[in-house]
Amino acid sequence: MQIETVFYILLSALAALAITLFQYFYNTKKGGRLYGLLSFFRFIAVFGLLLLLVNPKFYSNNYSLEKANLIVLVDNSASIVQGDSVKAVEVINTVKNSIKALEDKFKVKTYSFGAYLKDSVPLLFREKNTNITKALASLNEIYANTNTAVVLLSDGNQTVGEDYEFYGKRQGFPIYPLVLGDSTTYEDVRIGQLNANKYAFIKNKFPLEIHLSYDGLGTVSSQLQVFSNGKQIYKEGVALSRVSNSKIISVNIDADKVGLQQIKVVASSFPNEKNTENNQMALTVEVLDEKINVAIISDILHPDIGVLKKAIASNEQRSVRLFSSSAALSSLEDMELFVLYQPTSAFENVYRFAKQKQANIFTVLGAHSDLGFMNRVQNNYLFETGYPVQDIFAVSDPSFSKFDISDFNIEGFPPLESNVGAFSPMGTQDILLEMYIKGERQDSPLLSVTEDNNSIHMLLSGENIWKWRLQSFKRDSNFKNFDDFIGKLILYLSSSKNKSRLMLEYESMYESGNKAKIKASFFDETYSFVSNAALQLKVFQKSSSTKQEMPMLLQGRHYEADLSDVVPGSYSFTVSEKNEGISRSGSFTIMDFDLEKQFLSSNYEKLQRLANNSKGELFFPEDITDLIEILRTDQSYSPIQKSKQIVVSLIDVKIILLVIVLALVIEWILRKYNGLT
């Protein structure tokens, strides 16, 4: 407490004493025990009030010991138990027990991971994918700006995600990998990758790219065979050696029948090859008899054009061509869907042609659009003109029900630019994205759709969506979030000619069933989403004629059935609405392929580079004692004593106010009791 504060407290006491003496003893001969008691309570009340005005502060220090964090990160994927599973479990348990000796120095926390980080779930080693980078990145967020060390128990074999070796340089704390699994390198021929388009078109050839590699010191020969729907269509002998240890083989395959074409590639094993699981790989190509032709028409050069083309063409079912507004109308005859980018009066012939074809139109407006022309050429929206170019932000509208956009994550997306202000729909519109300007929600939407008897008109009221695709990549390390969203817009615009009240969304091929899901949307006669439909899914396995039946559960704005427990094979299915008898069918294949079985040896060399890049150190199971000793003796992880000063103002102490009130009340009661005024 400062000297100045002490002085004011003493001054307050003297002032309270003076006031009390003046009121009870000045110019009066009365005294006695009663007046002494009354003066005491008056002094307490006055002194308390003056003390609150001074409001002295009291200081105290709290001391605490802050320990460093020690994270035990355990690989819970199936590859851990591919070799000696008993030994792997013993090593993990030994590490956990040994680290208990460090609890006086560290705050110990255990996590497990497969494709994602999980909070210490039971170690069953059944995860279908391994993403070491994702797990480390999650820890980096949780323990940012803290003194932390990570002990990584893994075989180093990653199946999905960014290469963790290079991520180590961005890790905020050291990583100490401890190698699980067999570190012996075995001779092995394996098919590392198959590349093919997801879709092909009837009576065409589609390319298949096969990546074949060899790990070993000798020379081996392997017979490579390609099968299509069980029939051998290609065969080649391949020689591999230590020097020439990988080859890429390209094969052109005929798409001769509409439907799913199952491709299987097999590389023959050599004598005593230990791992033959990775000698074969399969994929499915869907053969189509038609392709959707999309025209993007623009008179300006803008990065949005390239982004739209890439996003739309990311699905091989669509063909995208670029035109200017002056293109010959005969060149647009085969186009089924028109994307009109920032139209001006030069687009008049294009609009008339699209109306005559009764084609669906996706219009993108921006600073170069002619809104006066838009008011003349179409009757779906009426635009007000004269607004300045400004930033507009997007927020998803949860009430949209034409199709499911719940997977589209727009969080953190930069604003678009536009001079589009208020506008009014001439009919009924459905809003996908709401428009916000300077934090205020606008009456006009950013992305909306209107329908008439002949066609659908979709309107995006802003330019620079290329920034959205870039942000999608920065956040997710891929363009999938953005491209899937644009794909759903195009799918809706292209499929609306044959409207169905029951819409299905599924893949033609799933890997090992761990992500197999079928989604459905059901609409009433006015094409409004029905949230209480009774949708039933029937799944038929083609090889055994077995049948499974399950209800589809409501998930937000769509229904969903999880097929993760379905065994690999080819299936057909039917989704039906029991009350109205509407149904749709399809087919899919679950591949019998497990990435985790492709590895027999641990990748300790990559784990070593991860340790080096993060300033950690690599250990093997026999070095557990050394690991514990390094963590125990490293002074950078010593507990830190921290002090926290607590400041309490007297005015915050409620009991002072209670004492003042109590003193005044007692004084008043005594005065009244003794007949004093």
Automatic annotation (TrEMBL):
<keyword id="KW-0472">Membrane</keyword>
<dbReference type="InterPro" id="IPR002035">
    <property type="entry name" value="VWF_A"/>
</dbReference>
<dbReference type="InterPro" id="IPR036465">
    <property type="entry name" value="vWFA_dom_sf"/>
</dbReference>
<feature type="transmembrane region" description="Helical">
    <location>
        <begin position="6"/>
        <end position="27"/>
    </location>
</feature>
<keyword id="KW-0812">Transmembrane</keyword>
<feature type="transmembrane region" description="Helical">
    <location>
        <begin position="646"/>
        <end position="670"/>
    </location>
</feature>
<feature type="domain" description="VWFA">
    <location>
        <begin position="69"/>
        <end position="300"/>
    </location>
</feature>
<protein>
    <recommendedName>
        <fullName>VWFA domain-containing protein</fullName>
    </recommendedName>
</protein>
<feature type="transmembrane region" description="Helical">
    <location>
        <begin position="34"/>
        <end position="54"/>
    </location>
</feature>
<keyword id="KW-1133">Transmembrane helix</keyword>
